[in-house]
Amino acid sequence: MFKTIVLALDGSEGSRRAVPVASELALRDSARLVLVHVDERIAGKAGGDVHPDEAEIQAAVRQQAEELSKQGIETTVQMRDVMVGGPAKAIAEIASEQGADLIVVGTRGHSGVPGILLGGVTQRLLHLAHRPVLAIPPPA
Fold this sequence. Notes:
Layout: E1 4-8, H1 13-29, E2 32-42, E3 48-49, H2 54-70, E4 75-83, H3 87-98, E5 102-106, H4 112-118, H5 121-128, E6 133-136
Parallel strand pairs: 1-2, 1-5, 2-4, 5-6
Antiparallel strand pairs: 2-3
Helix pairs in contact: 3-5
């Protein structure tokens, strides 16, 4: 059913929960898996990475790609830098460029007013992506 699956990873627990779901789908359908990580950056003189552990997150994404490849899943990594607030758009663009049939992304579990106020990458992605998005919720 799926030929190319984009898996968005940001180093959070939510994105780690999405890995087994995406890998199971990729194995089932012999699909290619594209791991996507977006490095949010702050503009200005004091600019830099939003996450101080960005280098470790990127290394973990690359390590995850190696582990998935060892499982027999064709896996590639796409990294992109954006200014604060743009990860969802970058993920949607990469999914389009890769011809993805599905985008898999974790959620952080914000609901109600916090979810509305914080927005969240997953919520924005649901509105921006022109492809199906599978959002993996936190455990109940």
